[in-house]
Description:
The chain folds into three domains: 230 residues, Aminopeptidase; 226 residues, Glucose Oxidase, domain 1 (3-Layer(bba) Sandwich), CATH 3.50.30.30; 174 residues, Transcription Elongation Factor S-II, Chain A. Helix content is 38%, strand content 17%. The chain is built from 20 helices and 16 strands. Helix 9 crosses helix 15, helix 18 packs antiparallel against helix 20 and helix 19 packs antiparallel against helix 20. The two termini are 48 Å apart. The N terminus is likely disordered.
Amino acid sequence: MTKKIFTFYMMLVLLGSYAQETIIGFTSTNAKAQQNLEKTYESLLNSNNLDSWMQRLSAEPHWVGTEFGRKNAEWIQKQFQSWGYDAKIETYDILFPYPKLRLLELTEPSTYTAKLTAVAVEGDEFTAQGDALLPSYNAFSTDGDVEAELVFVNYGVPRDYEELEKLGIDVKGKIVIAKYYGSWRGIKPKLAAEKGAIGCIIYSDPQDDGYVRGDVYPKGAFKNKTGVQRGSVMDMPTYPGDVLTPGYGATKNAKRLKREEAPTITKIPVLPISYEDAQPLLAALDGAMAPNSWRGGLPISYHIGPGPAKVHLKLEFDWKLTPAYNVIATMKGSEFPDQWVMRGNHHDAWVHGANDPISGMVALMEEARAVGELAKKGNKPKRTLVYCAWDAEEPGLIGSTEWVEDHKKELQEKVVAYINTDGNGRGFFRAGGSHSLQAMVSEVAGSVIDPQRGVSVKERRIAADLVNGGNENFELYALGSGSDYTPFIQHAGIASLNLGYGGENAGGEYHTIYDTYPHYIRFKDPGFAYGVALANTAGRITLRLANADVLPLEFQQWHNTVSGYANEIMTSCETMRSEVEKHNKMVDMNVYELASDPTKPFVKPKKKNAIPYLDFSPIQNALGSLKTTIETLSKLDISRLSNEKRKSLNQRLLKAENVLTSEEGLPRRSWYKHQIYAPGFYTGYGVKTLPGVREAVEEKNWKEAQEQIEKLAGTLKNFNKHLQEMVGLL
């Protein structure tokens, strides 16, 4: 154990004997009552419920539009009603493509027809349901019939195309084959199309989630040679949700785009395949050897091509409007009924979905059941609770997005925060979200005991971070995209969290026919101990938000985090400038690096365009003013406030996150309103913080970068004004 980690543990031991007397947002008297309530709540949680509910909800495939998906929604609704909630189903009619024809064949220099079918495994009856299983495909691929030479593009992300350009390899008019991982899958066909490719194939390499990592299913948790990851390739960085109704709900009579006008459907056909089907295609490639970092775990030499391998890809889909069933369950608050705390998890899956999403769904249900028990015993929450079971998350966050778009104005007026969960398993607590909620989540994490280690989940999280080079602070990660928090925080400007456990539950079942109950209870969370931990953690957060005297938002940690983001961008600019100046100096001095391929003629490098100096002072000045305001606000003693002042303060706190949005949104994607967090245009799920500025800098669009600096500074000034109103109120 390192000295740093030992010191940290000794500090925890010394502090452990002292009970936490205050918690954020509560007077000292109410803090004690809240902590006692949370202990009672925890005692009500029962892992047997999670087990039986998972068996029920994952018994059959239930992607959006299936009969079993509808039955699940109706069953969930009835459970909420039995626990004392007013529960209803809100339905949206969304475009959902179902595969009619899938053909992939190697036509030169030899022939092979891809099987495109995963095999059933012994001991898991759910994998043998035959035609009931959803065929493997990528939703929102366009239809297509293409044949061309093949090119291996590694993960198919921007840096891979930079490497191809160095090697003189062009994908224009070609079909690319890319590995899963490295980015969100939808970026791969998006970027390939921009580079001129006419088709895209995505496969799972055994190095990433197959036999290189561990025994394959059913012996172990990892993907066998026939497993295929389904998933959406909708261009969600442009906008998520129904592709035909951007920015408004897909209600029955909504005006819809023509399908050919929908910008988020891919421009080229794309198909996922297994590593069994990928091997003959990759083995037929010749040309340059792939760089060492590109090579996977298949027993072949990884060449890039193009050719001589030529493939034929043909896809056809049944494009139909499909009902998506959102379950909305409400428990009206006893004191502040017009302030809502929202919880959500989706219920649809690509196939059985035991891990994704049912492991999170059953934890949410157990949380709601226990809260219902508290209410029946006279401990009704002060604020209204809204529990949501979303449909159509898998094809593009559709159910939640349509609901938020449909109810946006009311949500912005009433929702305190949205708390999201999704898949869950054994391991470490991980939480992302609005950094104004970081201090509160840290307190909750310190009060939940890890079921394996007997220390708080906060302690275990920090210990893991220290081992991996992190620091001693509990920190939320910034939200990009990938689950149902996206429309809440990035479109409606509502403070949001995404919670889950994991890190000791690795496997290759993701979006395959192997994500089943038998797989889950063997490899993901035996005994559902971490399902209960998730219900305990999320439930405590929900109850604190619901019962707080003053909403538990804290802005000093928010300021430190956002200031760090700004410093990252400024440092990046300086690094880029230094590298360009060094390169140009070497060109002037006729000093060059050796050619990577000595057989090719040497070409003298060209000088690069100089990096201009951007004026970051508007952001720096705005953050400086914010720091002063936040320091003043942090000295507030809520116990001295009258009920009327608390009410006024809560109304402003509720709307604080929305002040960080801009109605015109980000450049070229106006759906994304938040100026602090957004998914990257070329990362998909991966976050870009201060996205308007950061992405302009990364794209070397200096004019836009300066414009976005001014825009962000304006947003920060508005935020400062909003916080100053709180100070003035007090």
